[in-house]
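Course exercise 7: structure representation. Students receive a sequence record and must write out the corresponding structure in token form. The form below is the worked example handed out in class, using Iron-sulfur cluster carrier protein (376 residues). Read each field label carefully; the graders check that inputs and outputs are placed in the correct fields and that the protein name is recorded exactly as given.

STUDENT ID: A-19
EXERCISE PROTEIN: Iron-sulfur cluster carrier protein
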Amino acid sequence: MTDARHIEAQIYERLNKVIDPELGRSITDLGMIAAINAVGATSQGDGDVPSYDVTVHVELTVEGCPLSQTITNQINGAIVSYPDAKLTPHIEVSSMSHDKLADLVAGLKAERKQNPFNKPGVKTRIFAIASGKGGVGKSSVSANLAATFAALGYDTAAIDADIYGFSLPKLFGVHTQPTNLNGMLMPVTAWGVKLISIGMFAGADRAILWRGPRLQRSLEQFLSDVWWGDPDVLLLDLAPGTGDMAISVAQALPNAELVVVTTPQPSASDVAVRSGLVALQVPMKVRGVVENMSWYEHKGERLEIFGAGGGRRVSDQLTETLGYDVPLLAQLPLDPDLREVGESGRPAVLNEDGALRSDVLGRTFRELAEGLLRSE
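STUDENT ANSWER:
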């Protein structure tokens, strides 16, 4: 015979599978289930199914948590799908006390121990997207590549490391700030990608005049003070050139792989080579080259508006100088959607439903993403 205490224990076990979308942990492990009460069993004659009202007391990490509805929907689903009785769920939502939240955050920070991406056995593949100069579409490539990884089912994170010229919030349509859990930040998720950028914080619309040490500290904070979980892929959108941030990335993330973005014309490709040659000074491998704006398709004809061969020139020069193969990974078309759709807040490589486009642009980004993950 099923009784209330058995129901409560079974529901708690089922809630082990409900995962907090931000922290990536079970809501039971995080201490978010304060109590479960099952009452009101009906008579249980032959053929009767026992019926209970089940009240779950949920303590969210912060008041007004933006994902509270997602969590309560999952809890409801876990309860109503219970197979041995008819359960009517009632969810009572509150927020954790200051002391309970402080203990939770302290435990998470102690478990993570600063930069989570620079430790033995880390599974995350890290790609730093670089360019020699501005205006070649580096941030657009970063945003669409991140969106592609997410659309392909990979747990994806992205850091806007272009402190002076941040643009990922706009490209992903982000207008909110990260949730602050007692000094630990939750990245904002948009189009399946976990994001952090200086552009998400108050006052970020003002000119930023930071020198090397403060730039390095900003990257360290993005890595260590943000709860990333265990992403499969982390992308960094670097500032153009070979300045302080590129050096900081190499120091903080020696396992990062550099992807150089250029356009076809010599004036861009010659400068792009320099961004790849930073690998001679720091312990970072250049994974390959992406040529952006390679052609514009007009009435079935490919028009090479910016010339041709820039990506191949960068690839060949870096291969010769660095002493290992630096392939031309992809040639991306000049697609007006990259600007028009991107500026609307949706990465152009995605359809409105978040699925990857099946046209040339979508196929090229899919091949680029899959190629990067295949490489060793």
